[in-house]
Amino acid sequence: MLRYVIRRILMLIGIIFVISIGSFFLIHLLPGNITAVIEGPGASPENQAKLYKLLGLNRPIYEQYFVWINNILHGNLGTSFISQTSVATTIGNALPIDLEMMFLSQILAFAAAIPMAMRSARKPDGIVDRFFSAGSFTMLSVPPFIVVILLVLFVTYKLGIPHTGPSSYVSLRADWIGNLESMALPAITLALGSFVVYFRVLRSDLIATLQEEFITMARSKGISQRRIMWRHAFRPSSVALLGAAGVNIGGLLAGGFVVQYLLNIPGLGYTLITSINTDDYLLVQGIVLVVSVGVVLINFIFDFIINIVDPRISRE
Amino acid sequence: MSVTPEKLLVVNDLSTTFATAGGPLPAVANVSFDLTRNETIGIVGESGSGKTVLSRTIMGLQPRTNVAVTGSVLLNGNEMVGTAESVKRGLWGTEVAMVFQDPMTSLNPVMRIGKQIDETLRVRLGMSKQDAKARAIELLELVGIPSPSQRYDAFPGQLSGGMRQRVVIAIALACSPKLLMADEPTTGLDVTIQAQILNLLDELKERLHMSVVLVTHDLGVVATRTSRIVVMYAGRIVEIGSTRDVFANHRMPYTRALLESSPKVSNASHTRLITIPGRPPNLLKLTQGCSFAPRCAYASDKCHQERPELQGADQPGHSFACWNPLPTTRGDSAS
Ligand SMILES: Nc1ncnc2c1ncn2[C@@H]1O[C@H](COP(=O)(O)OP(=O)(O)OP(=O)(O)O)[C@@H](O)[C@H]1O
Ligand code: SF4
Ligand SMILES: [Mg+2]
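^ inputs. structure came back:
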């Protein structure tokens, strides 16, 4: 186990190194006069000179990289020349929104998927299972942005609640009820996508696990069906589920932007789109870096959890 | 107060039929036998003869769907056929417990073995956490696992096959069952370990006053350990009798074939393993006749047309199902 963890951590460091090089070149390989490109149309000569020095463009490329990475390790992602604010601050404001959205959506997705998968797996192809499976299959074929639009229409016209649309995002610190209201729609939308995957993965693994001899053995001990499900079947059936969750959560960090954009939630995805539209390269670079490292970290964490859940994996 | 029945187990006309895509599959058909207290009975038969299905049906542990069970199983006076799972749950572990065929698959791979023993004690006997742990370690010791308190925290994957089977036995014994169903408890273990496990079962049986149903496809295993033997073929009993009668005085050609295929009981000069030619019948396509007929050297026309019922042999309690039984050697020498 320890050897495994050390190996994974070394790998993690390697991957993050590669990501940092990628992000570095994202800016430094831009064609033409980089400073002009970065600063956009409003570039002034003195700002250009400032940036030239900041980026250390007069030095060899590997030195430039070390200067850059050193800045980043000190939390300095540069200052946007478009908005004149620190990239780190902008990201620091947006990231908690993503984390909250991710957290809410995953809680919802798991809370629905786990009991439903257990119910389905108890009688595969039974009436309940057919209903759940058909429902999840339908959802699988509907992309999230359609779901958002349908949900907004539903909430606005059917429930008569005024559309919680653009610029209605309320921060958690200001008003947590208002915040939950503004987060409900995006969280539900993202939860639906995750739910479908979790339900299907867990259902099929549970069905397979319930065929195993050790389940019959557990049954022969005279313990309840409920206990067999939770204590014996769930854990060995949750490896693929956790794998899917790792990929999904990483995906939400990187890909929640459609929902964020449609519902005006100022998270990272939303900020990324805005920064691309305004040619705010430093901000794009910062977000790409943070998101990539985030995805890698999430995968690392889930890998680790999977190993704790199923000790067979690291032994092999 | 109900009177404790004399027989611990009475199986009467028990049949288990699976509903499969290919039609009804009669895995066990019209099986009847009984078992007294502290007795060990052997169930032998080739692979696929229905031994596992029979022993699970006796416990009421057949799959929950796509299966029909008829007949009767009285286990210490409790009817097991047609009984709700919630009722059977109250009998599993305490009245009857099972040692499964394959210790590599019968333990939960992601649960520490101590927890797997604890669970039964806590759920079924209502023991406290500490008591259960202490008892679990005792049980591990009882089944001969070295340094049991360390092993308590091991995962099944960290133990050898023989050790795992000992754990399975410890779990089965946790609630002191009156009847132990041992379904080929040593298949897949190497020979010295096999003997160890079987001896352990014998010893525990004496110590804990259990009755044992010992399932195996190896007659050598049951020769010295059982008082009676049930021989199964294609889901039916084809011969049943005292161990002596079945070994020395069998009448059914299949029993002989089985004996000859068992290396341990054949002559020392005949070291070669003789397997029974042909394959067991497809249970979905059983004929009217004796199901052994296609492989039987003694088969006559009648064998193909009509199935022989069990009939009594010379000795009480010895029956066989065959139209052309083998001559009785004992009968000859006695006259
Ligand atoms: N759940 C099931 N559904 C359908 N058929 C089954 C099921 N379980 C067992 N069978 C069939 O019942 C027959 C008897 O199987 P069983 O496992 O009892 O044989 P066995 O005597 O225990 O063999 P082995 O020595 O290999 O363990 C086989 O033909 C098997 O395919
Ligand atoms: S009844 Fe016929 S076919 Fe069956 S075992 Fe006896 S002799 Fe063989
Ligand atoms: Mg079997």
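The mean pLDDT of chain B is 90. The CA atoms of residues 122 and 129 of chain B lie 7 Å apart.
thumbs up if we can close this ticket
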